[in-house]
Amino acid sequence: MQQLITLPAILNFLFGLPYSCQRVFYHCSGQMFTAVYATSTHKPGTNKPSTSSKSNPKMRTGYTQRAQNRAANRRGQGRQGSVKKIDYPHPKALEVCFKLDEKSIKEGVEEGEASADPFTIELKMYLEMKGFPHKIHIVDPEKGKNLPEWFRKNNWDGVLPMTKYDKEQYKLGSAETMMALEKKFCVPSMSSGGMGAGRFRGKTVKNLTLSLLKSVRPYDDTNPDWKDLVLEFKELDQYLVQCHGREGDYMKSKKFSLWDIRMVPALYNLVTIANYFKPGFALPDEVPHLRSYLQHAFEDPVFKKFCPTVRKIVRYYEPKLNVRIVLPDDVV
Questions:
Q1: How far apart are CA 181 and CA 171, in angstroms?
Q2: Alpha carbon separation from 282 to 98, 250, 274, 287 (Å, rounded)
Q3: Is the dihedral of CA 114, 120, 124, 126 positive or negative?
Q4: Average pLDDT over residues 48-57
Q5: For 238-288, how does the pLDDT look when each residue is reduced to its tens digit (9 = 90+)?
Q6: Cα→Cα distances 93→26, 125, 132, 177, 291, Å
């Protein structure tokens, strides 16, 4: 009578063997199982599949696959060697509110269109250079038009521009927004400017511009507003001389720093609006470096993308100066 070989009998036999013999048996059994599995999954008409676990991804264990994926991610690659896009940290769900006048609403302003407010221009330039995705809201706080709910709850004074990001982070004004974002999201890094950049602010030039345009005195030393503005121009010119060739110098790197972003829109509005409100206005001859700097900065692609038209600049300053100017039809 033929005796049946049962599993308990096999186990008793194996456990009675030396340890080295047990390892040989386990190895041979594994190779046999691999060959049987490869034969059962082989499709007719195709090449014979490899029985090596190293060349067949389907036969890798879960632990080995995860280890290889982690190694690929550290090298900047995804699974199976695919290229992975490097995504630097950026604010999540970034939303920005910009000021819009009624005439612009009638003309139909699209997202990303330049605004005449210098603070709006500088913030748009900053977000463009940082590459942060964001959603734009064009609002009118005075009439309560197009105001998001988070704007109503956190900005009772209607300060613009205003930003919201990372769920509960709110910032009022372009300067506060840029400083907060640059501190937290420093990639890509932007220079703060050269030597003494903190002494100059676009708001100073803006206030001097309004004071000068409201003045009825001529542009000479008898006008205190003009003297203050010329003094500011000379300090700006001296700053450009000090930081020439240093880190943050726009004339060297052709890349705007935070200081440039704050100054260029305000200076552009000043030069543009003064030519229409005060014919004959020009930068003084004592500031040749400032003249050259503005000539190059006004042609920068980032600034030209958000540079407002002359008609929009005039429309922005008319209510501030309480005047009305009729521009020729050929003025954009």
A1: 10
A2: 31, 23, 8, 11
A3: positive
A4: 49
A5: 888 888 777 777 877 888 988 899 889 988 988 888 877 777 778 888 899
A6: 56, 19, 10, 15, 40
